[in-house]
Amino acid sequence: MKKKLAVLLAGTMVMASLVACGGNDAAPATNDAPAAEPAAEDTAEPVAEAEPEAEAEAPAASGGAISVGFAQVGHESDWRAANTQNYQDAFSEANGYELSFVDADNDNAVQLEAVRNFIQQEMDYICIAPIETAGWDTVLQEAQDAGIPVLIVDRSVDADPSLYTTQLGCDMVAEGETAGNWLGEYLDGADAKILVIEGSVGASATLGRTEGFNNIAAQHSEWEILDSQSGDFTQAGGQEVMESFIKSYSDFNVVVCQNDNEAYGAMDAMDAAGITYGVDGDVIIISFDATHDGLQYTLDGKINCNVECNPLQAQFAADVIQKLEAGQAVDAQTIVKDEAFVAPGITSQYAITMTQEVLDGRAY
Ligand code: GZL
Ligand code: ZN
User: Fold this and answer.
1) How many other C-beta atoms lie within 10 A of the C-beta of residue 46?
2) What burial class does residue 66 get, using C-beta atoms within 10 Å of its C-beta: 0-12 exposed, 13-18 middle, 19+ buried?
3) Cystine design at 212: which of 1, 54, 173, 187 (Cβ 3.0–4.6 Å)?
4) Radius of gyration of the CA atoms of the chain, in A
5) How many domains is the chain partitioned into structurally?
6) Are residues 304 and 317 in the same domain?
7) How many other C-beta atoms lie within 10 A of the C-beta of residue 10?
8) What's the confidence (pLDDT) of residue 329?
9) What is residue 5's predicted lDDT score, i.e. its pLDDT?
10) Is the CB of 264 under 6 A from ligand 1?
């Protein structure tokens, strides 16, 4: 169903970015690290914290269901599964939506084709969680020419921001810096020989976490990053890369895994090689995502530090769509706030020490 022209006019009146609390309000009150600051060029005015608004009510204005096309990255990780479920729950028929969901299976061509099909089908809105940052200008222009607002969700794109209505997701550079800052605090000047299992090549989550961690590593001349390879955010990829690292390096004492599933694979590989890890082992493991199983491993002391990236973001997208439906201005960017967690026995200014209560209080 085509959107009213008024909705599009409202979509162009974007405001400054907004730091939003993670959707995981079950998380305990925290001595959390400072909220990630929005990118400087976005903050025309002071940043305000915001909670996702109440469950989106059915669209009274237009009377019919709001059609939303969602081109999802794939099903590569537990994080992705939680993110997908969250979108399917938020964009339900009961909430007044007609969701067309495509799992692009980590294939750029499939994702681009899905977006073009959404344009053909004249969706009211298109949400894209871009597999890679590059290659989006043309199809975003096609969507804009067709008068369909596009929400870039979870990750970000390397495209002209005027080609899409909003971007929402976690601050990946801040996540990488949190990991580095925690490691610096934990090592307290000791040497580090670091191996990095990166996420999917070209993904903003990979690029941001790598950039952030390297920003901090540059401050530590006693650290050496021995190698960095992509594990594609999967458990199999993490295991494969760790197996090859073990063949090539014998003196490493830190493994940075850019998501939990890679960490599980790395642990399998180290187990098979008789290498110990975690708070009682020879190798420090840093992971990202803080999914339920990842935090269980952190609680068990197998993962030393786990930096959250909250997958429960769908309500932020629904809030944007509801505002557009009501002809209201929307924010150019919404940063979903993250926490970080460390194993019991570790105290940190950058992270929350895991307890069973913290784990039980998590919404995903
Ligand atoms: C992060 C998200 C990443 C997760 C991975 O926002 O894009 O993709 O860290 C997922 O688990 O594969
Ligand atoms: Zn140092």
Assistant:
1) 6
2) buried
3) 173
4) 21
5) 2
6) no
7) 20
8) 97
9) 45
10) no
Backbone phi, then psi, for 181, in 5-degree steps?
-65, -40
Please tell me the distance from the alpha carbon of residue 333 to that of residue 15, in angstroms, as a whole number: 8
Task: Report the DSSP beta bridge partners of residue 169.
Answer: 335
What is the structure's pLDDT at 363?
A: 87
Q: Using a 6 Å cutoff on CB, does residue 42 contact ligand 1?
A: no
pLDDT in tens, 306-331: 999 999 999 999 999 999 999 999 99
pLDDT value at residue 332: 97
Residue 315 covered by a domain: yes
Any domain includes 13: no
Residues of the chain short of pLDDT 50, as ranges, are: 1-18, 21-50, 56-60
Beta strands in the chain (DSSP E): 18-20, 49-50, 66-72, 97-103, 125-128, 150-153, 166-170, 192-198, 223-230, 254-257, 284-289, 305-308, 333-336, 340-342, 352-353
User: Is there a domain that residue 59 lies in?
Assistant: yes
Ligand 1 centre distance from Cα of residue 201 (Å):
12
Q: Tell me which ligand sits closest to the C-alpha of residue 77.
A: 1
- The first and second tokens of residue 120, run together, are 């053909």
Torsion on CA atoms 220, 338, 92, 333, rounded to nearest 10: -80
Q: At what angle do helices 314-325 and 78-90 cross, to 10 degrees?
A: 30
179 plus 166 within the same structural domain: no
Amino acid 263: pLDDT: 99
User: Of all atoms in ligand 1, which is nearest to the CA of residue 289?
Assistant: 9
Contact call for residues 150 and 137 (beta carbons, < 8 A): no
Residue 39 shares a structural domain with residue 139: yes
Question: Of the ligands numbered here, which is closest to the C-alpha atom of 133?
Answer: 1
Q: Which structure tokens are listed for 310?
A: 């909250």
Q: Domain with 79 in it: what CATH number?
A: 3.40.50.2300
pLDDT score for 364: 86
142 falls within a domain: yes
Domain that holds residue 50: 18-171+311-337
pLDDT, one tens digit per residue, over 63-83 is: 699 999 999 999 999 999 999
Sheet holding 125-128, edge to edge: 49-50, 18-20, 333-336, 166-170, 150-153, 125-128, 66-72, 97-103
